[in-house]
Amino acid sequence: MNRRAVASLAISVIFCTLMACGSPGQTGPSVSQRATGLAQTAAALLTSTAAASVTPVTPTVPPTATIMPTATISPVPVTDTPSPTATATPCPNLKADFVADVNVPDGTHFAPGSDFKKTWRLRNSGDCAWTTDYTLRYVGGEPMSGVTISLPNAVPPGATIDLTISLVAPTSPGKHIGRWQLFTPDGSAFGTKPYVQIMVS
């Protein structure tokens, strides 16, 4: 019930009471006393109604934001240490000597386009061993379809080795010569230059 309705009700009650109190022949408190009591009752009703109708407003406090701790990432130092590269130590005294033509002596006759093999015997006359990384390569004259070969085995100082090349006789008649030489793993030529000399007819 709102305050206006309560006030109207209180006034109606006071009015009715005053009317009743003014009736002839009635005994008891005087009209003024009753009016004062009724006014106090009406005031109490208005106060209690006002107190009941007022709803306290509780302020809403926004939630406090919680700041999460920030993770600290420490950089991990990366050390990229290159692996040492193995380097071949050059031999100060690297030599190769011709020993013999094992086959196909100089001036051997072949038909044009004939296949044949030439073998030389060479001696390691230096101070360092030859390894299988050493090669025998064509260096001059006519290659006669020969290709580079690797040494089939290691050759210590003072030892000999037989090296064979597969060749094809040229098609033109006459004398033909091809020269070959040993090379170190790093591509340096050394020593004698064995050759093949044939006649095509």
C-alpha termini separation: 141 Å
Q: DSSP strand (E) fraction?
A: 25-35%
CATH architecture annotation name of the largest domain: Sandwich
Class by helix and strand content? Answer: alpha+beta
Mean pLDDT: 78
Count all strands and give the number.
9
- Main sheet characteristics: 6 strands, mixed
In CATH, the homologous superfamily of the largest domain goes by the name Immunoglobulins
Shape from CA axes?
elongated
User: Helix proportion of residues, in percent?
Assistant: 10-25%
Q: What is the radius of gyration? A: 64 Å
Secondary-structure element series? HHEEEEEEEEE
Quick structural summary:
With 201 residues, the protein is an alpha+beta fold. It has 2 helices and 9 strands, in the order ααβββββββββ. 21% of the residues lie in helices and 27% in strands.
Give descriptors for this structure:
single chain, 201 residues, alpha+beta, Immunoglobulin-like, six-stranded mixed β-sheet, three-stranded antiparallel β-sheet, 27% strand, elongated
How would you explain this protein's 3D organization?
- This protein has two helices and nine strands, in the order H-H-E-E-E-E-E-E-E-E-E.
- The protein is α+β, with helices and mostly antiparallel strands.
- It has two domains: 3-22 and 29-53; 96-200, Immunoglobulins (Immunoglobulin-like).
- Strands 2, 4, 5, 7, 8 and 9 form a six-stranded mixed sheet that branches.
- Strand 7 (174-183) and strand 8 (189-190) form a beta hairpin.
- Helix 1 packs antiparallel against helix 2 (31-53).
- It is elongated, with a radius of gyration of 64 Å.
- Residues 20-26 and 49-54 have low confidence and may be disordered.
